[in-house]
Design a protein that fits this description.
The structure is a homodimer of 336-residue chains. Chain A is of the alpha/beta class and 336 residues long. Chain A has two domains: 12-65 and 128-141 and 185-331, CofD-like domains (Rossmann fold, 3-Layer(aba) Sandwich); 144-183, no CATH class. Helices cover 38% and strands 18% of the residues of chain A. Chain A has a seven-stranded parallel β-sheet, sandwiched between helices. The first copy, chain A, has a three-stranded antiparallel β-sheet with strand order 7-6-8. In chain A, strand 13, helix 12 and strand 14 form a beta-alpha-beta unit. In chain A, helix 4 (99-113) packs antiparallel against helix 5, helix 7 runs parallel beside helix 9 (222-228) and helix 13 (306-319) packs across helix 14. The longest helix of chain A has 15 residues, at 99-113. Chain A is globular and about 55 Å long. The A-B interface holds A 46-51, 79, 81-92, 97-107, 109-110, 112-113, 124-125, 128 and B 46-51, 79, 81-92, 97-107, 109-113, 124-125, 128.
């Protein structure tokens, strides 16, 4: 099971947010050519009339090896003429849009305006980048993550959209609650449920559980489909030694009443997956994780390089079809 | 009357299309600091979700001395990263949007989406460029120039919007008719009628009469206001020796049953202005022009430089308040 994937490889459905998921997918496509990402659109935002899908683009650019490696978002060798020009007018520039990146938003917005569903446009964009995987937004319907925060300018809480929280406020304000506007009426995009139903492995990527994975699960039918495939489900903890590698997952977990640890993650994901992969830094919490009702696999989970990502992807594949005792396939993977 | 304008100068309302008007305005602001352009928005187009106002931008960039001098549209020292990127996706690239120029469209679109009227956004953009004049779209309401052409792919005529005709088809297809979609319900933008009523001089710029000036006149109230100020009205012929300097004005005039000459222009504009300025190349048609009921002034009308534009602007000012005999102030202007 630790060899390179045979031609084709297992069918993988990966529930995905942004950066962490993109890195996981960069690895998964190296162990299978039957990967489909089902991605969060709760972070999508309309700015300057353009429809921006940050998670879809981060996945596309990362898997295409075109992402800016320093920033972790946007395209490498980017220029910023349009933003400079927008700044001249006193326009909204807290959400940076590179000139090349703008081409993606122009294309997506133009196609959406002409009535094309987001899932179709996303497929067209993925094809243009020759991605060795399928990329599906979880829904073609509007779904937006809203957060209730303390308004710095007012005494009472205020509800803002995700990018305002994440980019404008640099996720440095306390969050009282999260709400997925539109989720109740959203339908899974064509292919989403079938992909989960038909997958050999359902992977929950190391993304923020509360604002990247939860909005995907909030689309009616998606959570139930994943639960039905629990035996084939593997999650990778986005929390390492109590902290998020990037972004506010640890802080959000605490603020919203969860434990910011691999045990907290196990508690959240136990209904969805049979296995949780945790980082070696959390090895001492393995028993606590398993006490939450999931098998625990310990492995290096920090994906700096494509090689790191591919190794972790192999660990994930090894989790499925193994005997249910805690066999630590991660360590076996390490032997190859 | 041929000296430099006194501080302030006369109040000038200039009915404006794109390139020709922009050059005229570049001159008018050199002879008066009380210039207001009332500009065509029939060429406006929604592309990729962005609201693009080509005539407003051509005026702004030209008067700000920021226009690309070779192309005559867009900004100097422009880059094209966004368009290259859009091309990767097979997106619509026949309408070129430079990266810097995109900043203008992003700002305008964002402000319009937030409910700000086009006239307000236009003022904000003009202020950012420190334009020494006011720039008003003729209306804040949707008004779009449509043209009926022979569809190259079909046997029967098809109606297309202006930019499709002008840019995509390079205005090289026969036009059967022109229609100003939305004109009947459009209201003049705040300030438009007052500007015309209060102007010492109402200038009709050397723009295409049928697709640049006519859509301005099609907004209810505008034509009547200009007619009421006919004695202060001066038009500059966009046709020189039977041809347009740029664009399809000559061809369109013929196709739509007019004469492509200064006489044809005189016939169109006689109800609107007391004076028509024609180029020296058309000197021999002066009597024919006056037979149409307008005073004819002969002057150099080709504006290659800011100096040319300022000289023509002075000619225009000299036209107003002159005795009604054909006094040829252009020649007097030439003596200064």
């Amino acid at each position: 099971m630790t060899e390179s994937a045979p031609s084709g490889g297992p069918t993988i459905a990966c529930i995905a947010g942004g950066v962490g998921a993109a890195r996981m997918l960069r690895g998964l496509v190296r162990v299978s050519d039957r990967v489909t990402a089902i991605a969060n659109v709760g972070d999508d935002v309309e700015l300057h009339g353009l429809h921006i899908s940050p998670d879809l683009d981060t996945i596309t650019y990362t898997v295409a090896e075109a992402i800016d490696p320093e920033r972790g978002w946007g395209l490498a060798d980017e220029t910023w003429q349009a933003m400079d020009s927008l700044g001249r007018y006193g326009g909204v520039t807290w959400f940076s849009l590179g000139d090349k990146d703008l081409g993606t938003h122009l294309f997506r917005t133009g196609r959406l305006r002409s009535g094309t569903p987001l899932s179709t446009v996303t497929r067209e964009i993925a094809r243009a980048w020759e991605l060795p995987m399928e990329l599906l937004p979880v829904t073609d319907d509007p779904l937006r993550t809203h957060l209730v925060i303390d308004d710095p300018d007012q005494d009472e809480p205020v509800e803002i959209d995700f990018q305002e929280y994440f980019v404008k406020h640099q996720h440095s304000v306390p969050v009282h609650s999260v709400r997925f506007e539109g989720a109740i009426d959203a339908r899974p995009a064509p292919g989403v449920i079938d992909t989960i139903n038909g997958a050999d492995v359902v992977v929950i990527a190391p993304s923020n559980p509360l604002v990247s994975i939860d909005p995907v699960l909030a689309v009616p039918g998606v959570r139930a489909a994943i639960e039905a495939r629990r035996h084939s489900g593997v999650a990778i903890s986005p929390i390492i030694a109590g902290a998020a590698l990037k972004g506010p997952a640890d802080r959000l977990l605490r603020e919203l009443g969860h434990e910011a640890s691999v045990v907290g993650i196990a508690r959240l994901y136990a209904p969805l997956v049979a296995t949780l992969v945790i980082d070696e830094a959390d090895r001492d919490r393995e028993a606590e994780v398993e006490a939450e009702g999931v098998r625990c696999v310990v492995a290096p989970t920090i994906m700096k390089s494509a090689h790191d990502a591919a190794s972790l992807a192999q660990v994930v594949l090894d989790c499925v079809g193994e005997p249910s005792e805690p066999a630590r396939p991660a360590e076996r993977a390490g032997e190859t």
